[in-house]
Design a protein that fits this description.
432 residues; alpha+beta; Adenine-n6-DNA-methyltransferase TaqI, Chain A, domain 2; six-stranded mixed beta sheet; five-stranded mixed beta sheet; 11 helices; elongated
Length: 432
């Protein structure tokens, strides 16, 4: 690709220096914004109608190019008039305006006239290619302009004030065409690595199940009989500290795939740490389990950092005279545990487990003298599969970084797409 000189070209604070001498302006000057419409429950749930009523939860329904033409809810033109709904035209760039979804920086393009709910906003460029503006807006981290408060939100005024480059219409089209083709190549390769990571994770579970399959049903006992302590969290949100302290909160998002992340956590004051640990303080080697949102994630706490349980988290401390903590972990990672959790969550709108049920879960617990070999066998088999999963995820991260860098360089004019072949966008990333 040809990199263009940047002497005397404009600079935009959140994008850096442009590669072309394009004019700069604000989003509010190059397009108009559409507000969403409140969507009463009584009108939701219809799959037939004249107009799709799009919500953030519909964003995954977009095609590979980010065009969203359908929704899980449709309404009639009569209902739209009754609600006073604003109909967005085809070619609007959609973005979440509130909540955690806002921070994911997802953008979609309307593929047909539609209505959006009040958690979504639409931006329609006055001219040019909507695809260019979508690519540009994917780079805008809404977190940097959100309003302070417990729930992140952003106003139309804040987004409209964002300064942007404004290349000529034909240039926008060439950039969008180039990025459509090159991101498709990257995404296709990324799909292969996602499948590889999924297969590796499934193989790790299969290896665990295979080891337990050789044990008789009589080897199972209630988890309460295998533990010296079982602790449920304090069921209210702990106040966090703006300052970094040694005392950390373990949330459900910190527990994944057999491990507990004690680094990417919220800090609290010492008094909060003491109060929230009044039922028991987590120790290295404890098994932490999420009983809701989502149900069934588990990990072993390896760090010796002072931590406490956030909401919806339970602690299981293995009685070493009865069961090794690694074997307790493998029980929670196995299919027989998932089946128990599925039965407990059956019929619930949101899968969850009551604390009392968490005491009744059954685990395989062979004689203590045989557990060392069983743990070694499972650990070796899982280790090979998890190593492959980590390699696949590492390549996925590399592809994600390159995709983002490619978009940035192209929409800012650093790359001349009229001469760029795109042959090198995945250099260094194995294709098989």
């Amino acid at each position: 690709m040809k990199t263009l000189p940047t002497n005397s070209t404009p600079t935009i604070d959140w994008l850096g220096q442009l590669g072309r001498n394009w004019p700069t302006t604000t989003l509010g000057r190059v397009g108009r914004f559409y507000m969403g419409t409140t969507f009463p429950d009584t009108f939701q749930g219809n799959s037939n109608g004249d107009i799709p009523f799009m919500k953030v939860s519909d964003f995954p329904l977009a095609d590979r190019k980010g065009v969203l033409s359908t929704a899980n809810n449709w309404i009639s033109t009569h209902t739209a008039r009754h609600l006073g709904a604003r109909i967005l035209p085809e070619g609007c760039v959609l973005y979440p305006r509130v909540g955690a979804a806002l921070l994911l920086n997802q953008r979609r393009i309307t593929g047909s006239p539609c209505i959006v709910d009040d958690n979504v906003r639409g931006f329609q460029p006055y001219s040019g290619d909507p695809r260019y503006w979508r690519y540009l807006m994917t780079l805008l981290d809404m977190g940097r302009i959100t309003n302070p408060g417990p729930v992140p939100s952003v106003s139309e005024t804040q987004v409209a004030a964002v300064r942007v480059p404004s290349p000529p219409r034909d240039e926008q089209r060439r950039i969008a065409d180039f990025l459509d083709a090159e991101t498709a190549r990257i995404d296709q390769l990324g799909l292969k690595y996602r499948k590889l990571a999924l297969l590796a994770a499934e193989r790790a579970t299969a290896a665990t199940d295979e080891a337990f399959a050789g044990l008789p049903d009589s080897s199972t006992i209630p988890v309460s009989a295998a533990c010296s302590n079982i602790v449920d969290c304090v069921n209210k949100t702990a106040p966090t500290s703006d300052l970094v302290t040694p005392y950390r909160m373990i949330r459900t998002t910190n527990i994944r795939n057999g491990e507990v992340d004690a680094e990417n956590t919220f800090s609290v004051e010492h008094s909060t740490f003491i109060e929230w640990n009044r039922r028991g303080t987590p120790q290295a080697g404890d098994i932490l389990f999420t009983r809701e949102a989502p149900l069934g994630q588990v990990g072993i706490l390896r760090a010796r950092t002072p931590v406490f349980l956030g909401q919806r988290v339970m602690l299981y401390r293995a009685n070493d005279k009865v069961i090794k903590n690694e074997l307790l972990l493998y029980n929670f990672l196995a299919t027989h545990m998932r089946e128990q959790l599925r039965r407990l969550g059956a019929g619930s709108l949101h899968e969850h487990m009551r604390v009392g049920d968490g005491l009744k879960l059954r685990v395989h617990c062979p004689p203590r003298a045989k557990q060392d070999e069983l743990v070694r066998k499972i650990g070796v088999a899982r280790g090979k599969s998890l190593h492959l999963e980590r390699l696949a995820n590492r390549q996925l991260n590399l592809l994600t970084e390159r995709r983002q860098a490619l978009i940035t360089a192209t929409v800012t004019g650093q790359f001349d797409v009229s001469t760029a072949s795109g042959r090198n966008v995945t250099d260094g990333v194995p294709t098989s």
